[in-house]
Specification:
Three copies of one chain form a homotrimer. Chain A has about 350 residues and is of the alpha/beta class. Chain A has three domains: about 5-90, 3-Layer(aba) Sandwich (Udp-n-acetylmuramoylalanyl-d-glutamate--2,6- Diaminopimelate Ligase, Chain: A, domain 1); about 100-300, 3 Solenoid (UDP N-Acetylglucosamine Acyltransferase, domain 1); about 315-345. In chain A, about 15% of the residues lie in helices and about 30% in strands. The longest helix of chain A has 24 residues, at about 320-345. The termini of chain A are far apart. The model of chain A has no long low-confidence stretch (mean pLDDT about 95). At the A-C interface, helix 3, strand 40, helix 4 and helix 5 of A face strand 22, strand 23, strand 38, strand 39 and helix 4 of C.
């Protein structure tokens, strides 16, 4: 498929600069793009490649437009425009209706005729698989679980009994939705399991990364709001609630019953303690710990960048005496005050 | 099933208050419970829901009993009592004996007649699956591995060759028991693999979370004691030993040959370095690093809660000069001392 | 199989000390070894077991040779020598050519006659599986993916469409190679997916741990160099490049487009931010954060070992006022200077 640059400009509401008649047939990086490809710049680190690119055209914002004299689509949000054009040239493959003969589908499951059930998949009794759903190889949809229309479980995904996935979701390989929460009562030195009776309820347009785990609620449900994006190897404990359009990068861990607002951006490896609330529009820098509720929007951090180890160790050793240092500082202030007072008196 | 409140009180050794004749048929949260449901309070954060609850009865401790005037079971450990009653109303489904036709079971495997081997599962040669074991869909039990009686591998669990899982364990989807340890010798710039010849030996009543990985020992075994509970996405390296009834929350990483005591509680995302020992009854706060042996029971921490990023950055920048600050502080103390000495002399 | 100690010495270029005629038939730990076993010491912590060992012979370096008077192979790198001898006695089982009847192999896949495709595996169309490859139970090789000769996918591994794994690699259970990168453009409050069009290209002699995830590139490829070793539960984001012979311990997270040098050693739970460069021969201590480029070889750290929690909390509380403390310190220095100046003047 090829589309003229002018047509792309019109379709995606960008301003055309240069030759609108050239044919664009794909997208590529600045370095790899050829004359039929569209590329884009948003990260300033890549501006250095502008002069050398062989791309047919670039998507740029107004600020960068002056750095490049070739054909361009100019728009306020080049990444968004580029994402849409990339999807135009690389649509998700259509879901082929049917069931692979190796799939095990319980007679009491309800599978839409338009859905695809892949090889080695298992669909248990009472499960509901809606229109145009793609169940990839090796996926398991547990008893009474529901997969909303147009959702794709890529491969080896487990959706445990009774859990619900919304529409147009994508769940990546190895993800587990609906494992038991980590709930125990102490009986002397032994742990007694608290039955985990809730579900996971995932909204529409959610993406869940590879090997991410989302636990079912203990009594109520774990709730993942519409448009939430979870990266790989994220851990969501029981009864967590995540507000709409919040994104969490890789390796984030969220403890039980945390309630996280809408449109939050949680950096990689962040830890979020349990039984707290995070307001809407909170950003947390990677590797930080959210130890208590954050009641206001804003950017939060407790991340500590590495330094040469020898230097780091010296400072870290002092940290262990910081309280004592603070007390000594206060004592010095007192003494100095005393000396000044005496001087003024004399 | 419905049971009178009086019967529950007697069976679970709680003190009855109010109407013992009411029928209880399930458990629920304070907010969701109806007249036939039992609910409980242990976290003080939920006391606010007491006045509005429609629950038939509550499980409370003596301290909270005064806050609520309705029917109640009063006990020293409401969570434990509730867990047991919840299990009464929601027993694990009985294991249905048999083998799904799609399961691949080696002729040289020994599978108890009372066990269930689910769809798409693989049981390799020499494996032993004991009485009432549940092998869920997509699980793999490797050559010569052994699964103890009444254990449940929920789904997509891998137990590698030669590893042993005890009795009454629960292993959640995606968990891997017996992957090779991360052992290499350096040969110039190249890494040469050290064969990982040990096993994983898991005790009785252990629970292993979704997508958790437990490596086999290099020569000896990796050992998980009775009653240990591992949450999701936990990493246990080769030759680690975990003492009985220790619990580890999500995303904990334990490096090779660490020996961890009994009844420890390890918070989420904690890192534990290799070749160290942790005493019995140690609690480590979430996101901390255990960098050396902890020889005494107690609570340990190196967790740093996030602050507004601007403020955090200012403090973190100073941290890089903490050693220098400590030296300047000392120098000031010397100078002040000098001034005082001179004053006293004059 | 048994081999004389003299023969081992010759074959693995170690210096023989003692009785070269004894037969060695296996390897074991110092504690477990019997008269037919070889053991070794490299970690000084294990020297205490030297006196009690019943091993037929030990592998030692010159420094430790004096601590033990029995039969020995003496070599500069005992761990390397031991690894090779251990592999001699415990070779990987040969790959049995064939295809398990339960495997689903697309007619348009190319599978070498010498390869093994295990039970419940799925090989999609256009995939290439080269000579002597082992595809374990439950593995999925996606459309057009390529698995190089002598590589082993142990079990339940997913290699997504179009990705390439080199020769002699080992990929452990649950690992995912080629999941979509975490790429979105913002459209108001909603996230719009950026199609992830690149591949993962894995070199030769790479090992990838259990439940590790490696995302495909957004446009270009994610590249894992020859000889790289990734432990369990590692997250590699899109377009990351990892140089040859770099090793990463468990739970490391690497954000998008990070370029990591050769022969680096990245400790457990380290976080590496995106769009940065790490030089060759960099070591990062466990749990540290690499927040910016590291342009020189060396050891880096931001790890903070745990202390008793009460003590830790006191110091951490002071940390929140570190900037203010630094300012107070400076003010004190100014005042002291003033007092000294006055004294000198008077």
């Amino acid at each position: 498929m090829a589309v003229t640059l002018a047509e792309l400009a019109q379709r995606f509401q960008a301003r055309l600069r240069g030759d609108g008649t050239i044919a664009i047939s794909g997208v590529a990086t600045l370095e790899a793009a050829g004359p039929g490809d569209l590329a884009y710049v948003s990260n300033p680190a890549y501006q250095k490649y502008l002069s050398g690119t062989r791309a047919g055209a670039l998507v740029l914002n107004d600020a960068d437009a002056g750095l490049y004299s070739g054909n361009a689509l100019i728009t306020a949000n080049p990444q968004l425009c580029f994402a849409r054009i990339a999807a135009l040239f690389n649509p998700l493959p259509a879901v082929r209706p049917g069931r692979h003969p190796s799939a095990v589908i319980d007679a009491a499951a309800r599978v839409a005729a338009s859905a695809w059930i892949g090889p080695q998949a298992v669909i248990e009794g009472g499960a509901a698989v809606e229109d145009n759903v793609f169940i990839g190889p090796g996926c398991i949809v547990g008893q009474g679980a529901a997969i909303g229309a147009d959702t794709r479980l890529i491969a080896r995904v487990t959706v445990a009994h009774g859990c619900r996935i919304g529409r147009r979701c994508i769940v990546h390989p190895g993800a587990v939705v609906g494992s038991d929460g980590f709930g125990y009562a102490k009986d002397g030195e032994r742990w007694v399991k608290v039955p985990q009776l809730g579900r996971v309820v995932v909204g529409d347009d959610v993406e869940i990364g590879a090997n991410t785990a989302v636990d079912r609620g203990a009594l109520g449900d774990t709730v993942i709001g519409d448009g939430v994006k979870l990266d790989n190897l994220v851990q969501i404990a029981h009864n967590v609630q995540i507000g709409e359009h919040t994104a969490m990068a890789g390796c984030v861990g969220v403890a039980g019953s945390a309630v996280i607002g809408k449109r939050c951006a949680i950096g990689g490896q962040v830890g979020i303690a349990g039984h707290l609330q995070i307001a809407d529009d909170v950003t947390v820098m990677g590797t930080s710990l959210v130890g208590g509720s954050l009641t206001r929007p804003g950017v939060y951090s407790s991340s500590m960048p590495a330094e040469p180890a020898e230097q780091w160790r010296k400072n870290a050793a002092r940290f262990r005496h910081l309280d004592e240092m603070a007390k000594r500082l206060k004592e010095l202030e007192r003494k100095i005050e005393q000396l000044f007072t005496q001087r003024d008196r004399s």
